[in-house]
Design a protein that fits this description.
The protein has 176 residues and is α+β, with helices and mostly antiparallel strands. It has a single domain, classed as OB fold (Dihydrolipoamide Acetyltransferase, E2P). Helices cover 24% and strands 41% of the residues. It contains three helices and eleven strands; from the N terminus they run αβαββββββββββα. The strands form two sheets. Strands 2, 3, 4, 7, 8, 9, 10 and 11 form an eight-stranded antiparallel sheet that branches. A three-stranded mixed sheet has the order 1-6-5, with no helix packed on it. The chain is globular, with a radius of gyration of 19 Å.
Length: 176
């Protein structure tokens, strides 16, 4: 009985994998990830830097082994909320992007648009690069009316000033 269940599970998994790969165009690479939901306190705790700024550029590149695409996102920093060297500009590395005709889509990765104003929670990696804490969870858009939103979701109509106050209060709690 257990052997039959295992065989059915393997066949089902194979069918699902072949169905998923059949829908991917030949010049599109897909990646998948699993992101654990983080609270505001956890985002603050995991972040080495938290910044407010405007996305001024994006450049997607192949990894050294040409196995993956990553994107370098340039942000003009308006305010350092936590940590950081105080630079006027930073570069964030995000997984995925488009190089030529090849696109790599990474689920749960933060996605930036040139010209958007953002609040971003960043972690420093061993290689000196900065990446977004918790994938999409660590990136917020500051709307034209000064509210903080994640994609289309507004954060209870909180203003950027209110969110920064909450972040600083959390930093104070965590430093005790």
């Amino acid at each position: 009985m257990i052997q039959r269940i295992a065989i059915v599970a393997v066949i089902t998994a194979s069918l699902l994998l072949s169905a998923c790969s059949a829908r991917v165009p030949p010049d599109e690479v897909t990646s998948s990830s699993l992101v654990v939901e983080l609270t505001q306190a956890e985002l603050v705790a995991h972040a080495d830097w938290i910044v407010v700024g405007t996305v001024t550029g994006k450049e997607s590149l192949w990894s050294a082994d040409r196995g993956n695409i990553y994107t370098l996102v340039t942000v003009s920093v308006e305010e350092w909320v936590k940590g950081g060297p105080g630079e006027n500009e930073i570069v964030i590395t995000t997984p995925g992007g488009q190089v030529g005709e090849t696109t790599e889509v990474v689920e749960d990765a933060a996605g930036f648009q040139e010209g958007e104003r953002v609040l971003v929670y960043l972690q420093l990696n061993d290689d000196g690069t900065a990446s977004v804490v918790g994938g999409w969870q660590g990136q917020f858009v500051v709307t034209k009316n000064g509210k903080v939103a994640r994609g289309e979701l507004s954060l209870s109509n909180l203003s950027l000033a209110d969110v920064i106050s909450q972040i600083k209060a959390e930093i104070g709690k965590q430093s005790k």
